[in-house]
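step=encode ok
step=design start
structure_in=
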């Protein structure tokens, strides 16, 4: 009996083959693997040369598995699953998860809730990465992201709605000491308008005062929503912010809602995570916990 596995191709090529067979697209496979499209194509060409058999049909729009490729992909996926499960059994179950969020989402929504998460799940090490950039999940070791915008956020990624965006105008009660709150477009121009990077004021004023003219109020601009909110708390002007971000400040009396209007935007907050064959129990736990927080927002 011969020793070893003399007919076994390189394991890395088999891993690349499994991903390509699942996506039937070199670009999507490259994004999942964190390598270039050319590197993926080279691995597949090398594997086909090693096996001396064609695994894929190159079609005008993407790829198709040959009969041999289809049968081989089923067997390889089963084999890689067995290797993955055997490896997991050797290691203690990971108890940490990294979630990437925007700085404003972190400071105004997530951080106030982390104490409750720690109390409910003391064995989980939840790591928060605050950045405006949509993290590269493999390179940055990110498991889950919360991002504001509209799908899709990238190929090879799953998205799930977390929270709709409802914007309200807020200000410190001190801003209105000795003068009434604005009830007209002209009255609004007497107060500084605090902007963030999303610049929702034109849309908000158009919805609130459909036939208004050009704004003439003093403007202050910030690159983070949280900074505009803090400026509003400091009495510097009127800010627009997600209702979820300022709910606690309103309840505490640090802010008041200036107008009754809640502007619902097309963009929203989404959960984003890599599209893999299997989600870890810890990822499911954190996703479910985040979604459970929404009714209280």
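sequence_out=
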């Amino acid at each position: 009996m011969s020793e070893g596995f003399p007919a076994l191709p390189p394991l890395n090529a088999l891993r690349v083959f499994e991903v390509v067979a699942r996506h039937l697209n070199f670009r999507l496979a490259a994004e999942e693997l964190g390598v270039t499209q050319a590197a993926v194509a080279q691995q597949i060409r090398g594997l086909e040369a090693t096996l001396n058999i064609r695994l894929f049909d190159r079609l005008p729009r993407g790829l198709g598995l040959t009969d041999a490729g289809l049968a081989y992909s089923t067997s390889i996926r089963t084999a890689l699953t067995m290797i993955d499960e055997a490896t997991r059994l050797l290691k203690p179950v990971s108890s940490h998860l990294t979630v990437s969020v925007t700085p404003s989402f972190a400071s105004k929504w997530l951080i106030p809730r982390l104490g409750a998460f720690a109390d409910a799940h003391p064995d989980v090490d939840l790591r928060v990465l605050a950045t405006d950039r949509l993290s590269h999940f493999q390179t940055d070791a990110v498991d889950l992201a919360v991002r504001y915008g509209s799908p899709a956020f990238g190929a090879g990624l799953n998205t799930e709605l977390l929270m709709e965006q409802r914007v309200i105008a807020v200000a410190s009660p001190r801003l209105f000491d000795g003068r009434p709150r604005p009830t007209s477009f002209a009255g609004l121009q007497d107060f500084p308008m605090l902007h963030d990077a999303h610049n929702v004021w034109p849309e908000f004023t158009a919805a609130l005062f459909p036939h208004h003219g050009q704004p003439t109020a003093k403007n202050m601009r910030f690159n983070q929503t949280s900074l505009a909110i803090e400026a509003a708390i400091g009495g510097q002007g009127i800010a627009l912010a997600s209702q979820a971000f300022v709910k606690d400040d309103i309840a505490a009396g640090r802010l008041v809602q200036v107008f009754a209007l809640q502007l619902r935007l097309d963009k929203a907050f989404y959960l984003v995570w890599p599209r893999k064959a299997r989600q870890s129990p810890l990822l499911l736990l954190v996703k479910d916990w985040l979604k459970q927080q929404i009714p209280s927002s």
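step=design ok
step=annotate ok -> The mean pLDDT is 88.
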